[in-house]
Every structure is written in structure tokens, then in C-alpha cells.
Amino acid sequence: MAKADIGLIGLGTMGSALALNIAEKGFKVAVWNRTTATTHEFAREAGALAANIVATETLEDLVAAIDGPRAIILMVPAGAPVDQQIAALDPHLDPDDMVIDAGNANFRDTIRRMTELSRPFLGIGVSGGEDGARHGPAIMGGGDPAHWARVEPILIAIAAKFEGSPCANLMGENGAGHFVKAVHNGIEYADMQLIAEVYGIMRDGLSMAAPEIGKRFLQWDEGRLSSYLIETSAAVACAHDEATDGPLLDVIVDAAGQKGTGRWTAIEAQHLGTPIPVIEAAVAARNMSAQRPLRADLAERFGGVDTLDISVETLEAALTCGKILCYAQGFDMLRAAAVAFEWSLKPEVIARNWRAGCIIRSAMLDDMAAAFEAAPETTLMAAPYFADILTETIGALRATVIAANGAGLPVPAMSAALAYFDTMRQARGTANMIQGQRDYFGLHGFVRVDSGAMDQHGPWADD
Ligand SMILES: NC(=O)C1=CN([C@@H]2O[C@H](COP(=O)(O)OP(=O)(O)OC[C@H]3O[C@@H](n4cnc5c(N)ncnc54)[C@H](OP(=O)(O)O)[C@@H]3O)[C@@H](O)[C@H]2O)C=CC1
Ligand SMILES: O=C(CO)[C@H](O)[C@H](O)COP(=O)(O)O
């Protein structure tokens, strides 16, 4: 029997879908899962694709089933499970065999593993959820180009295509792929939070029912906001709950989960000194959402929201504006990381890679790719196409934030987007006061605007 082209460990949501995708594209894939019953169930349900699947019960059998030099994908939870799985697998492998971590690893773990392991190792970010993994995800690779080349034909075959162009690219060396995936997820958090805030205004400020909100999202999906996340939000808002004979959305607990990628993005932005306030606000909003008992107590003490007067068209424009600002921050962060970690991250390649397959895919990403192709060093805020949209929509974002604040409705991500815009368009800011304060209490020195002289001190230095 011919040996498998590739191996895959971890037949959970993503791994099983990815394995079927690989098999469907004509590659033979050997699979192994910690719980053997899952492997059998997977093979049983593979249908016609079973011909391209080798189900194995032990790691020895898995390794023996793959053609050498081998490539084995890990699709297990990030963190300790990856290290445990590598440790269990490593003794069975030959020196040239390659391990590919395709989960949502922290890029710092990926860099550590690459230096610790004396074998080829790739860290690839895979986005698109279960459906993407099954029918075409976006793939963000990190590692040695020669190692990437060994599996590129398979990754390109299984990846999503945007007008024929595969959304699978090597982003850069070592942890670059997992870093780009983390920033993708940071943008995902921000985009989701902005949509949730608009939903909140429609629900609590305009008294709109979930299906009505869903219909608006469906309309927006036909225009500039067209995206997978708007489509998803429409489906969620329109869904019916049999048990209550009402909207499903109304019976979902208002506490958002998180597995770490958004938080890592916020932490890394702080390390890099790159402002990503919309993404940070989205992470903080998830943290606040988790504090349900406290929110319930405080609602009794301080609760009460006024209705507000704002058009749905204004909300659509505000969301468009906020979305551009959060993507601008994500891309600016990627540019800062490229310098700090010496990666050759190319914003136009990343934008192209995100046009299909991934969770943040949207019509705007094609325009972003075009903007970066024309000027790779630009911030999206200054790219002519997006600068024009910001000019057109910033008033709507401002009106929405003012109206929501006036009514007592929380819009942390939209507020952060507006504050970012206002801060970044202020040629003379207010940090002169901070520099004065720092010099007063710590003699940290300041620069004079008139002479450019550095390390200046105020009169208090003589006291
Ligand atoms: N779900 C999603 O939308 C996406 C997930 N990801 C990432 O993909 C990875 C997998 O996620 P997902 O498929 O959703 O997870 P699931 O929970 O569905 O599956 C996890 C898989 O990992 C196995 N596993 C768990 N712990 C260990 C361990 N200690 N050693 C070996 N195997 C282990 C499980 O085996 P067993 O059957 O024995 O429990 C199972 O096969 C994660 O890093 C996740 O962040 C990336 C993009 C999207
Ligand atoms: O990577 C993904 C999508 O791109 C996963 O669905 C991830 O789990 C989403 O993050 P979180 O669970 O923190 O919301």
C-alpha cells in the first residue's frame, strides 16, 4: 500500500476537517488521535474519502504509515498539549522529519520550539473555523522557506482561493505565521466587538428585535461592510429558538469566552509600543462581559439606559469607520513587529492572504491589499481610498459615540476608535504636559519646540 503524503495528529473540530480537506484534494493522510475511539469514528464517517485516509492507533503506526522525509501536522490545543505531543512523537521520528504546529500557538512558544527541537519545524496559523478547515482555510506560515517548500503543494491545495489566488503564504521566519494569526484574531475580536456594540444600540437604544437587527445586517452585507462576520452576525440574530419560540440571541448568556490570541495581541502591542486601542478595548470588553455577577449587582445600583435617536444608516457608517480604524491598527502593529523581530512581513501579502477563508475576510480586504500594493509603508488611515471613507464616515462614528454615551450605552471599541482617530490627527497633542510632569517629579528632561534642544529641565530643577 502506498504510504501517506502527510500525517495529522488531533482529530478535534479543526483537525478532522483539515484531514478531510487534505484527503479530498487527493493527498493520502495518516491520522492519529489521543482518544482512539475518535479515530475510528472519524474513519467510519469519512465516506468516499476513507480511501485517502490511514487511521492509526499508535504513534509508531502513524509514523510508519507516512512517506519520508515525513511531515506531521499537530492540531491540538495551544500550550502544554503541543509540548506533550511533540515529546511523545519525537522519539519515533527520523532527523529530517518535520513537525507542523497548526494550532493557535503563542508565537513565542513557536520560536522556543524551533530552537529546542533539532528537526524541521513550522508554525502555521490556520483560520476559517471548522468550515474553513474543511473547504479552504487561510494559512499563515512561519519558518524556514525550505521547510515550507516541502509542504507548500499540500497547503496551497487545501487553502481558500480568492479569484484563483491561494490564501496560503509563508509570512516569515520562525514565529511569524503564528504572530500574524494572533493579530488576525485581535482584529477579529475588535470587528466582533464593534458589531456587538452596534447590535446593543439597536437592541437597547432603538428597541429593535433580534430578527429585525439581523435583517439590517443582511442588508449591510450587500454593501461596503460585506464580510463573513456581518454574515455570521446576521445568521445569529435571525436564528429562532424552539424552546422559547423567540430569538435564539435573546437566550444566549452575555459572557464571551476567549482562548488567548486576542489577549496575546494586546500584550505584544504593549511590548512593541504600538497603539491598538480598538483591539485592546475589545479584549477588555470580553473580560468585562465575563463579570456577570458583578454587572448584575451594579445594574441594580446604577442601572437604567435612555433611548437614543440615531438612524440605522448612521450606525452602518459608524461601523464602517470603526472597522477601518481597527484594521489600520492591526496592520501598523504587523509593521512594527516586522522591524522588531526582523521578519519580512509584507502588508499587501497579508491582506491578500486574508481575502478568503479566514474569519475576518471581507470585501474591504481586497481594497486594503490594493492600498498596500500601491504604498506598502502607508497606514490605512492615510491611504487615499480609506482616507476618503474615513472623511465620509467619521461624523457618523462621532454621532454614534455621543448618542450612546448620552444614553448610557457602553461602546468601548467605538469610543476607542474615535479617540484614536482624534489623537492621531492632532499635530500638537497634550504630552507636553506629561513631559513637564515627568521632569518636575523625576528630572526626566524634555525637548524644547523652539530650539529642538534635548534634555532640558524646568525651573524646579534648580530648587
Ligand atoms: N475551533 C476553531 O474555530 C479554531 C481552532 N484553532 C486552533 O486549532 C487547535 C485545535 O482546536 P480545535 O480543533 O477547535 O480543538 P478541539 O477541542 O475540537 O480538539 C482538540 C484535539 O486535540 C486533542 N488533544 C487535546 N489535548 C491533547 C493533549 N494533551 N495531547 C494530545 N492531544 C490532545 C484532542 O484529542 P481527544 O479527542 O483525545 O480529546 C482533540 O483531537 C487549537 O490550537 C485552536 O486554538 C484555530 C483556528 C480555528
Ligand atoms: O482562531 C480562531 C478563529 O480565527 C478560533 O475560533 C479561536 O478560538 C477564536 O478565538 P477565541 O476562542 O479567543 O474567541
Automatic annotation (TrEMBL):
Pfam families: 6PGD (PF00393), NAD_binding_2 (PF03446)
Pathway noted in the entry: Carbohydrate degradation; pentose phosphate pathway; D-ribulose 5-phosphate from D-glucose 6-phosphate (oxidative stage): step 3/3
EC annotation from Swiss-Prot or TrEMBL: 1.1.1.44
Any GO MF annotation of the entry: phosphogluconate dehydrogenase (decarboxylating) activity
Segments forming domain 6-phosphogluconate dehydrogenase C-terminal: 177-461
One record GO biological process: D-gluconate metabolic process
Keyword DNA-binding: no
Keyword Oxidoreductase part of the UniProt annotation: yes
Keywords: Gluconate utilization, NADP, Oxidoreductase, Pentose shunt
Enzyme class: oxidoreductase
Taxonomy, superkingdom: Bacteria
Reactions it catalyzes: 6-phospho-D-gluconate + NADP(+) = D-ribulose 5-phosphate + CO2 + NADPH
Family, as annotated: Belongs to the 6-phosphogluconate dehydrogenase family.
Quaternary structure and partners: Homodimer.
Entry function: Catalyzes the oxidative decarboxylation of 6-phosphogluconate to ribulose 5-phosphate and CO(2), with concomitant reduction of NADP to NADPH.
NCBIfam families per the UniProt record, alphabetical: gnd, PRK09287.1
PANTHER family attached to this UniProt entry: 6-PHOSPHOGLUCONATE DEHYDROGENASE
Protein name: 6-phosphogluconate dehydrogenase, decarboxylating
Organism listed in the record: Gymnodinialimonas ceratoperidinii
